[in-house]
Structure formats: C-alpha cells, structure tokens
Amino acid sequence: MRGKILFISLVTLLFLTIPHPALSDTLAQLKEAGMLVKNKQYQQAEAIYKQIVTAFPDTNEALEAQKQLTCVYIATDRQQEADAAFEKLITGFSKHKNISEAVWLIAKRYNTSKKYEKAIEINQYNVEHFPKDIHAMWSQMNIIRYYISNGNEPAADAAFDKLLTVFSDQPTLPEEVWRLAKMYSGLKRNDRAFELYQYNVEHFPKDIHAMWSQMDIIRAYISNGNEPAGNAAFDKLLAVFSQQPTLPEEVWRIAKMYSRLKRDDKAFELYQYNVEHFPKDIHAMWSQMDIIRSYITDGNEPAADAAFNKLLTVFSQQPTLPEEVWRIAKMYSELERNDKAFELYQYNVEHFPKDIHAMWSQMNIIRAYITDGNEPAADAVFDKLLAVFSDQPTLPNEVYRIADLYGQTGRYNKANGLYQKALQLYQYVIDIRPNSEQMILAKAGVARSNIALGNEAAAEAVVNELIADFNDEPNLPQAIFLVGEEYYNKAFVTENEGQQAESKAYFRKAIAMWEKIIKELPPFATTPEAYHFSGCCYERLGEYEKSVEYYQIVVDRWPKYEYAWSAQFLIARCYEELANSGRIPAADAAVQICNACNKVLANYPGCMVVTARSLLTRWNSVALNKGGDK
Question: Are 507 and 457 in contact (CB under 8 A)?
Fold first, then answer.
C-alpha cells in the first residue's frame, strides 16, 4: 500500500512539473497582444488579455494580462473600465509577489498619458499598501518628482520626509536621495540640492552615492570660486570615503576640473596626491600622465623626464602602460620633438613587444623614416616589425598602410612590393585563423591588396566569395566597404594625376562595390555609409540627380547617422551645381537649396552652420522671386 501511495505521489509530482500546454501558449498570446498594442490595435489586444485572465486565474500570466488590460483602458481613455480593471488587479492579486511592480507600472502609464493626478493616486496606493517593496519606494520618488517639477515645495518636502521614514531600510535609498538632489541642481535649486547631498553624506557614509554627493558639493564650490570651502569638502571626501574603491577616480576627476579652470597648481596637487596614495590604481597612473603632459607643454623637459621615469617605476605593473608611453611619444611627435618621440617609441618596442601599442610605436618609426626619405633605415625597422610582431593579427593592415605611404610619396615599385607582402600576410591570417573574426577582414585585405596591384578580377572574386559564404556576418558590410574605399581612394589619386577617364572608372567601381552592401546584404550600420559615399561618387561624376537621390535616402532613413548633416548639406550643393550647369531652372533649384540649408540649420545646428547660412543667403532672394534670374 505504501509503495502504491509513493507511486501515485511521484506521478502527481511529475504531472505538476510538466508545463501545461495551454498555459505555455499564454506567453505567445501575451507577446501577440503586446504587438497589437504597439500597433494600436487595442480591441484585439483587449480580447486576448481578457481570455488569459479568465482561463488562467491566479497565475503570473493572469497578473500580467490584468495589468496590461488596465493600461489598454488608460491608453484608450476609458477611465471607468481602467478603474474597474485596476480594482480587480489589486483585489485578485494583492498577495502576489509582483503586485507592487504592476501598480508602479500602471502609475507610470498614467503619467505618460499626462493624467498626473491619477498617477499620484496610484503611486500613493502603492506606498500605503506595499511599503517594503522597492517599487513602492519608486512610486514615492515619482510623487516627489511631480511636486518638485510643479514647484510645490511644501508637498515635495513632506513627500521626501515620508521617503526617509517609510523606506529607511531600503538599500538603494542613498541613490534615490542623490537623484533628487541632482534634480534640484538641474532646476537651479542649489540650496536644496546641497541640503540633500549633505544628508546623504551624514547618514550613508559607506554608500557610493554619498561619495558622489560629496563630489557634487566639491564641484559646486570649485565652480563658484569658493576655494576654502572646496578644500574643506575635499578633505572630508578623503576622510569619510577613504575605503571607497573608486576614490582615486574621484580625486582625478576633481584635478581635471581644476585643470579645465586653469588652476594648474591645484590640479598638480591632486594629481600628486593620487600618485602617492593610490599607486596601484589606473587613475593614479592617469594622474601621472597628466603631470607629464603639463611639463611637456610647458617645455620643462627635465621635470617631464623625471615624471616619465616615475611613471615607468611606479606603474610598471599596469597593463595599459605601453599605451601611455605611446601616447606621450605621439605628443612629442606633434610638438616636432621627434628625437624624444623616437626614444619613447623604441622604449615601447624593446620593453613591451607583445603589446599592440609597441607595434604602433614601430609603425611610427617606419613612417618617420619613409617621410624623411631614409629608405635603408625604414627597411631595417620594417624587417624588425615583421620579426617582432609576427603574432599580431593586425600586422597585415600595418604592412598595407606602409605600402600606401610609399605610394603617396611616389615610390610605386616599393609600394607594390609591400602590397604583395601584405597580400601574403593577409593570406597567412586566413590560413591560421579560418574561423576567426579577423578572417573576413583579412579576406577584404586580400581584395584591397589585389586592387592596389591591379588584379581587380581577383579582388572581385574574393568579394563574391565573401558575400556567398558570410552573408549574415555583422562585420561583412564593413569588409566590403573597405574594398570599395580602395577604389574610391584610387579614383582621387588618378584624378589628381590628371587621368580623368581612369578616375571616373574607379568612382564607378566604388559605387558597384557599395551597391553590393545596399542590394545584396541585410541592413547594417555600414548601409547609410554606403549610400552616402555612393552619393559622393555620383557627385564627382557629375550625376547630381542620382547623387541627390542617395543623399536623400540617407537623411530620410538614418537621420541620426553620424554624417547625416553632410548628406543634407550636399543635397543643397548638388542643386546649386544643377542650376549653375543650366540643367534645371535657377528658381526651381533655389527652392530646393533653401529647403536643404534650412534643414541643416534646424536639424544639425552644430554642423556646417556658416556655410549653410552663406548658401541660404545667396539663394534666398531667387527662391522668393521664383522665375527671376540669379
């Protein structure tokens, strides 16, 4: 009998652990209803939510459906049904672990629908009935924000006091206090912001948001020029938050702030404090870097050398030290202190041969020799590049860049030899890493090298193979774009050499390559770039109508694309060319030019402002007097 009972229990347990097929379908139904709501098909969504609530009462899915049903009624402005649905939610699911979150979300829905009083009512319900839940604290936060935004300071103060009292045990309370202080600060209520920042520091000294509060106090004093108060607040930062692991970062940020305000003496003091007290932290190394930069800029070479030696000694274990050495060398190079730059580049190569910044250092040495015409030295350093950095996956790219540099200086035989070497190295990467991310870009490198060597048929074959085999790979469009860019660059080189027919042919080959991205690949981040640069090619070919078409696609489909402002302005320039060539009436062009320039000024106020205004001024009178001569 006991065995039979045990068997029945096991069967029952097994049955309970198998998901009910109809219940599992509700997830798909909820997803479907969500899509219907997104498309504003509220009636169909309402029917699905009601069905779930009826068929599966007391389940998580029913809670979600009842919550969403309430939101549907809010969205469709059916207040009576919304009230009834909410009442059913809080009655039927009052003990559910997620009820407070559901109530908070409904309050948010009222808020986005600009039904602020109703949002306050729902948020207050949450606070009163579920005071131990974090979503109730968030409801109280939303109540406070509402009062602050509306300038109702007494109500905001009372609500804030309630936040501190009711939610004193919530571990994220210091973060909420800090956020409210930031809100007051944004509204120029600095007195109130200060009060909240100080409350945080006094009551939650072990919390990072209390440290951020102290940081905001310091920033305010510094900005107002109150140095004694800033110093006292900084001392308190060090005393109270000495155990905070991110303290060195905060010290560095304050030093940077002093530096921006041209208070270099104070910045130095804090940089040095960081180096002395936190030598194992990366922000202490960045502080030492800022000290070195300052000495270099001031021309104080002995001090810069001493500071650099300290960088190498104190921060020898920092993994990014080679990058910092490379950056200092670049700074010397930009100041035309090439002897010092060389010294640091060589230090990097000798001491950190496995780091990519050491390879970049070696590249900079090679570039300098090529630019100076010292080919034997460049060859020797190039051989060292191949020997020391043979394991670096981007080595073929560097060889290719060196070949480009020789080509730019007119040494084509040397360039061709290096393109051939790059071709071999790209193939080497493909052979040893056939399934790696680098493989696709390496194949693109093979295609680019073939173009540089005049083997365009081989390049085309590689590109077609890439598209056939790696159509869904996210870095494929970038690889194809780089191949098109090779044609694009050759078009400008031949144009500058007076070879107009060859230049036009290369522009068309660039377009053909980028058309593969547009027509044969799924949309990726590179797609607007392909349209944009194709438009540039059509413009160079004098096909301004086609150019406008491509630029317009960019601004219509990708208004947030990095260079959408350029495409918008180039539309105006193309219409100006069409008018100047007599292909369209000047008055018609003027309307389009003014429209494009106004869009540049309205949508991209930080880009091409002067040029767009100048073009607009030039054509505005023609647009206003349509039919007149320019």
Answer: no
User: Which CATH number fits the domain that encloses residue 605?
Assistant: 1.25.40
Residue at 316 is within a domain: no
Residue 565 inside a domain? The answer is yes
Q: How far apart are CA 598 and CA 449, in angstroms?
A: 43
Is residue 125 within 8 A of residue 141, CB to CB? The reply is no
33: in domain:
no
String of DSSP letters for 276-327: HH-TTSHHHHHHHHHHHHHHHHHT-HHHHHHHHHHHHHHTTT-TTHHHHHHH
The secondary element (H helix, E strand) that includes residue 127 is helix 116-129
The DSSP string of 341-395 is HHHHHHHHHHH-TTSHHHHHHHHHHHHHHHHHT-HHHHHHHHHHHHHHTTT-TTH
10 Å CB burial of residue 67 (0-12, 13-18, 19+) is buried
Our count of domains for the chain comes to 1
DSSP string, 532-586: HHHHHHHHHTT-HHHHHHHHHHHHHH-TTSTTHHHHHHHHHHHHHHHHHTTSS-H
Give 544-573 pLDDT, tens digit per residue.
Answer: 999 999 999 999 999 999 999 999 999 999
How does DSSP classify residue 606? T
CA distance 252 to 290: 10
The dihedral of CA 96, 101, 106, 107: what is its sign? positive
What is the spatial distance between Cα 216 and Cα 226, in angstroms, rounded to a whole number? 14
Q: Which one, of 147, 173, 171, 174, lies nearest residue 159 by Cα?
A: 147
Domain that holds residue 629: 542-630
Let me know if residue 602 belongs to a domain.
yes
The pTM is what? Answer: 0.71
Low-confidence ranges of the chain (pLDDT < 70): 1-24, 407-410, 412, 415, 428-430, 432-438, 623-630
